[in-house]
Amino acid sequence: MFPTYIDPVFRPPSEGRSLIFQVTNGCSWNKCTFCDMYTQSQKKFRARSDDDILEEIRSAAAIGPRFEKVFLADGDALVLPVRKLEMILLAVREHLPWVKRVGAYCLPRNIRKKSVDELTRLRELGLGIAYVGAESGDDQVLEAISKGETYESTLEALLKLKSAGITTSVMVLNGMGGAALSEQHAVNSARLMNEAQPDFLSTLIVSYPLGEDRVKQGFESIGKVYQLPDQQALFEELYRFIDTLELTDTVFRSDHASNYLPLRGNLGVDKQRLLQELEVAILRPGQIKLRQEWQRGL
């Protein structure tokens, strides 16, 4: 019998066909001003007990080989100590031998106290991919949104994961710098990606279903006024970001439901094509298919 999940449960789009084990509840940081994922009282961070996790994994064996991927929820399962992660991965290997890959969200701070050798061991046991929400590569933006990270701390984590052979999937938020910091947000985020050379890179447009007050207050704390760029400015920011990227073999996706213009390609071979599509959206929007406001998933 499966334990009851504590809602809401989030996972990356690419984990849509994965078996989800909620090994933690909520997010261990949970201070980012833009994030409304774990604001409910029942989602205060808590690591589940070893016994509960093992019981769930054993129970999942009854499903049979219907799932080839496992996702460890919630917001940053890699905050767990190496010992516990090893236990989970070993249990998946023993009871679900058909599983080919285990993935998890990852905050850069999760990696700070884990050595490359320890991460390599986790990869050998099945941890195949880490989804890192970088959000921005600009230190001013990161400070304003209370991310608790810097350009350097994010880069250090990404390079560690890469050294251990763990696939990295990084997300950057289009519009997170607001109108005031849009240029430096785009350029410094691209610089961070150029140094990290992630395997996957995605962008989505920020939205605030519970309001912008916390975001605005964060920007005020650094002496800036936050205003979400309009559609035209978002396209221009994304153009600047992609134009500054110097990636050799990164799968790029900007096709989340929040995006007005779905973009897909490989950077670098598709860089010029992606820029041309954005140029049409900026200069001749009537000549390219864009999502209408009612079609966007916020």
Folded structure, characterized:
By secondary structure, the protein is of the alpha/beta class. It has a single domain, classed as Alpha-Beta Horseshoe (pyruvate-formate lyase- activating enzyme). It contains ten helices and ten strands. It has an eight-stranded mixed β-sheet. Strands 2-3 form a two-stranded antiparallel ribbon. Strand 4, helix 2 (about 80-95) and strand 5 form a beta-alpha-beta unit. Helix 6 (about 150-165) runs parallel beside helix 7 (about 180-195) and helix 9 (about 230-245) packs antiparallel against helix 10 (about 270-285). The longest helix is centred in the middle third of the chain and has 15 residues, at about 180-195.
- Oligomeric state of shown chains: single chain
Helix proportion of residues, in percent? 25-40%
Can you tell me the residue ranges where pLDDT is under 50 for at least 5 consecutive residues?
A: none
Any idea what the CATH architecture is? Alpha-Beta Horseshoe
Q: Could you say which overall geometry the principal axes of the C-alpha atoms support?
A: globular
CATH superfamily: tm_1862 like domain
